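Ticket closed. Logging final result for HupE/UreJ family protein.
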Amino acid sequence: MENFKVYFELGYDHIMDIRGYDHILFIVALAAIYLLRDWRKVLILVTAFTIGHSITLALSTLNYVIIKPEIIEFLIPVTIFITAFVNLFKKESSLKSVKKIQLNYVLALGFGLIHGLGFSNYLKSLLGKSSKIVTELLAFNLGLEVGQIIIVLSFLIISFIFIDLFGLKRRDWVLIISSIIIGLALTLMMETKFW
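Final structure:
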């Protein structure tokens, strides 16, 4: 049980670490089009991301999938860029439509696969050569999930303040947040060793 707690805290701390803000940017880019009242949709979205990264986190940690870290370090900001860029073209009417927003579920699941490869390098360094990692993987993923939910909830509360209390138009909010994230994602891409 102590081991579970340790890996849960490691997963939580990893997602909440502001120095590794790339994953936070991705979560915020996914959540940018939602409002606080959409919390159920956002919970599904975050869970889709968790499922995606859990798959590749397990496969990579067990050495079934091996991809150069430089490629993953480049692809993670690409996923952030694409997600935020897609937000720029969502019309006000599509922000309220359930069917249009389902693309975000696909992005969360698919891009979660890439982010899982990023998490795996960190987790591999912690596990060493241990072959019994099921409990550790589960605990780490649950820690990540709790951290992601806190990030999304915090962002939705900030959105509520700006949109519902201050009267900022929802479309303008999405454009502002997504544009900032695009700029940061481009910076991250340029900083990678991929070039």
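Residues 135 and 170 are 42 Å apart (CA to CA). No further action required.
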